[in-house]
Automatic annotation (TrEMBL):
Taxon lineage: Bacteria, Bacillati, Actinomycetota, Actinomycetes, Propionibacteriales
Protein name as annotated: GAF domain-containing protein
Source organism (scientific name): Nocardioides renjunii
Domain GAF: 67-151
Coiled-coil segments on the chain, per record: none
Taxonomy, superkingdom: Bacteria
Length: 234
């Protein structure tokens, strides 16, 4: 699997800061190990709760990268695991049977994802520092492999998280500015959809959309396209 452009840029900046060049190599090795354990793995992300940054790798369709943003915007295992402090494994049936996860269920189905595995990254004193989200191409991608997959990513993630001392939120919002200009029509349409469905003002809906895109580490236009697609038949 390959990192999406936003992840490559963030890791390059971090590697330059620490002058060791190991973060990207470590993440790619971890993901390769995970894919050997679970060949149906088509997407993986490691999210830093402290800095609002997500490192994402995808096997094929980079729209999988927007799935984290859908969770931040509505709800999903990635959000719930942060509150529960323990892992969550789902199948398509599980996602569609949970009303809070309806948007996420539609987005995963559209992206060809049929199972997910999410687990927390715990720091010192039992403090939650982030989450790992894995996306599978079949209902059984992660069956019997939860513990081994968790260990693969926990071995890499703490270093990436604890070494991250840049102002990520500010930088990521700035990076997204050109995309906002190029895809303003998509963003406005998605904002209108969210405002209508959530019965909030356009300003609040726009803020929620941009915040979710930033937390997921994807361009707001990419997340906007997913929102439009999953609400197309509503």
């Amino acid at each position: 699997m390959k990192p999406i452009p936003e992840t490559l840029e963030a890791l390059a900046e971090l590697d330059a800061l620490h002058d060791d060049g190991t973060l990207l190599v470590g993440l790619c090795r971890a993901t390769a190990s995970a894919q050997r354990l679970a060949p149906g793995l088509v997407g993986a992300s490691v999210a830093s709760r402290e800095h609002g940054l997500t490192f994402t790798l995808v096997a094929t369709d980079d729209e999988i990268a927007a799935l984290d943003g859908v969770q931040y915007l509505s709800s999903g295992p990635c959000v719930d695991v942060a509150d529960a402090g323990e892992g969550i494994a789902t199948t398509s049936e599980d996602l569609f049977s949970e009303p809070r996860w309806r948007s996420f269920a539609q987005a995963t189905a559209a992206a060809g994802v049929h199972s997910t595995l999410t687990f927390p990254i715990m720091g010192g004193a039992g403090r939650l520092t982030g989450t790992v989200n894995l996306y599978g191409s079949s209902e059984h991608t992660f069956d019997g492999k939860h513990a081994r997959l968790a260990e693969v990513f926990r071995a890499w993630a703490p270093g990436a998280v604890t070494n991250a001392d840049l102002a990520f939120s500010t930088r990521l919002v700035a990076e997204q500015a050109p995309a906002l200009m190029r895809e303003e029509a998509l963003v406005e349409t998605a904002t209108g959809i969210l405002a209508a469905h959530r019965r909030v003002s356009v300003e609040v809906a726009r803020e929620q959309l941009e915040d979710s895109a930033t937390r997921a580490g994807v361009q707001v236009g990419r997340l906007a396209r997913v929102i439009i697609e999953i609400h197309h038949d509503d």
